[in-house]
Structure formats: C-alpha cells, structure tokens
Amino acid sequence: MLLSRGGAENIMIAQELFTGYNRKKFPPSFDSVDWKFLEATLRVFNFPARFKAWIMECVSTVIFSISLNGSTHGFFKGARGLQQGDPLSPYLFVLVMEMLNLMIRIRIQQCGLFSYHWRCKDLELVMLSFADDLLLFSKADTN
C-alpha cells in the first residue's frame, strides 16, 4: 500500500492498472494461512512471547464438527487457516499480508531481476492489499 496516498487514490491506481487485464480467482485466503507462518510473523514483528502464545492457542486449538440433519457428528482439528467471523482474524491477516509484502520487497532487493510493471515503476509499487484481496504488479514476459 502506498502510505503517502489515501485509500481512495490507491483504489483508483488499482482500477487504472486493471483496465484490460484478466483477474484470477483463488481459494479464500483466510483458509490458507499457515500457522507456522503466522507464528514466525508474530516473532518478526517482536510481539511478546506471552502474547504470541495466546494468539497461537486461539488459532490452533479450534475443533470442528459436522452437523447432518440436525445432529452433530465427529470432531476434527483444523490444520491451518484463520476463522472468518472471529474478531481477531482480520488483524492477524493484515500482519501476514504485511509479512508477505516485506518478503517480496527483500527478494526484489536481493535478486536484481525484478521488473516493475510499466505503470508502477515511478512509484516502485509491487502490491496493493485490502481485506483479503491482493494485487501483485510486475512486468510479465510470456517467454
């Protein structure tokens, strides 16, 4: 996200960039957050150990069951993901997205092979994210 610009301006930039491009749909992003990655993210952003333990306890001890014809059957433990509707999940997801942004920027600096999309070069814009939507911008080559 471009911090020096307002949210509406970021949306206008994204809309202008998307003109003439196809959009790819992916599975729900909250469901795919890896808990080890979340834990590493909390560590990188220097959250206190006790707080990290509480967060990981909240997300990793969820038990699911299936309801068929009004009766509950079986219990199984989740292996990944953040619960949609949980008031904590959006905040955790923002941290995970910020970590992804940091990792991409570090890789760009290390690699030297990255080419910005021609409309993003002056801003050094690589990605925009909002809620669970992510837009990645780079120069693509079909070869």
Count of strand segments: 4
Spatial order of strands in the largest sheet: 1-2
Q: What is the CA-atom radius of gyration, in angstroms?
A: 19 Å
- How many independent structural domains? 1
Backbone structural class: alpha+beta
Quote the beta fraction: 5-15%
Largest sheet: 2 strands, antiparallel
The shape, in one word, is: globular
Count of discrete alpha- or pi-helical segments spanning 4 or more residues = 4
Order of helices and strands: HHHEEHEE
Mean pLDDT level = 75
Helix content: 25-40%
Low-confidence stretches: none
Distance between the termini: 29 Å
Quickly describe the structure.
The protein is of the alpha+beta class and 143 residues long.
Molecular structure report:
By secondary structure, the chain is of the alpha+beta class. It has one domain (28-136). Helix content is 40%, strand content 15%. The protein has helices spanning 7-18, 35-44, 49-60, 89-111, and strands at 63-68, 71-77, 127-130, 133-136. The radius of gyration is 19 Å and the shape is globular. The model has no long low-confidence stretch (mean pLDDT 75).
Tag the structure with descriptive keywords:
single chain; 143 residues; alpha+beta; two-stranded antiparallel ribbon; two-stranded antiparallel sheet; 15% strand
